[in-house]
Known about the structure:
By secondary structure, this protein is of the alpha+beta class. It has a single domain (about 25-190), classed as Immunoglobulin-like, CATH 2.60.40. Helix content is about 25%, strand content about 25%. The chain has 4 helices and 8 strands, in the order H-E-E-H-E-E-E-H-H-E-E-E. The N and C termini lie far apart (about 65 Å). Mean pLDDT is about 85; it is low at about 10-20.
Amino acid sequence: MIPGRLLSVLILTLLLTSCASSLYKVKPVVELPAMTAHARSASAGGVTVRALPILSDEETQDLFEANVLLAGVLPVRTEMDFESGVPVEIKRARFSLRDGQGRQWKLLSPKAAASAIMKANGVFLYNPHSRKTFEQDMTAYGLDLKTTLSDSNRHARGFLFFQTPDKTPVPTMSNYTLTIEKLSQIAEIKLN
């Protein structure tokens, strides 16, 4: 017979080791398919920006193994391509999203998006390493805005994460407009 204290330690050890991986099985970034023809684009100050919101539960489940839309988080797949001879500092770019009702959505960091997903799915007990891994996996999907676009670095690709104004599930049938400011020109893209 196993003493109570030893049994408790054994159970705790099993729980911690079973939760040592990520909370969700986020698909590796290298496996992303090419952006579809449905992506909309605009040119702004030497950069072409293409964007496509991920509005289907199937796509979010496939990428993040979580119902991101139910969490009130809209992932917008974004590509920025260099098109002129003058380097473009994209770290100063400001992205904003408005819906068809004119409401402004909050831009989330990938780490904040991971927190919103966990909260919406009721994940409160977890291994801290699992949360960190999930946040790292989400960060790998984030759009890199730190690197200057130039002839030697022509592309920036990744996701921008926006949260609904009232933190309710994302409505799939809304007219979304992505605005990019603080480049040499303002760009607006009607996403759907």
